[in-house]
Request: fold
Amino acid sequence: MRFYVFLIVLVVGMIACKSSSQKETPGTQAVASNKSEAVIHRVDNAAFAAKIADSDAQLVDVRTPDEHAEGAIENSTNINYRDNNFAQEANSKLDKNKPVLLYCAGGVRSAKAAKILKKQGFTEIYDLENGYGGWK
Reply:
């Protein structure tokens, strides 16, 4: 009998928690979080090149300014991942509603940068899997 009472209390508690988390405050609408909708695509050179051709795409080199100066994919914006204010700079320079294409030297920094951008609310992120070294 105690088991059934426990089970009923558990089910009622779960239902109460679920319904309270879905309540809206007056004047607002329930909107899906961009963070949960965000997807990071790790892509090869061909897919990356196809996305570059998309006029809305934002091409970002996350290497250091010195690395960028030594060679970069044409029309890329340099936002240094190693800068302490990387997230703030990305937020100020990039549109969260447009695709972001990231690359670094070998794919490690851009993968880390992609995770930061996802947390910041960017919804469509493409990461060049082998970086600029594999692009050349």
Q: What stands out?
A: Confidence is low (pLDDT under 50) at residues 17-35. The first helix runs from residue 2 to 21. The helical segments are 2-21, 34-37, 45-52, 65-70, 86-93, 108-120, 131-135.
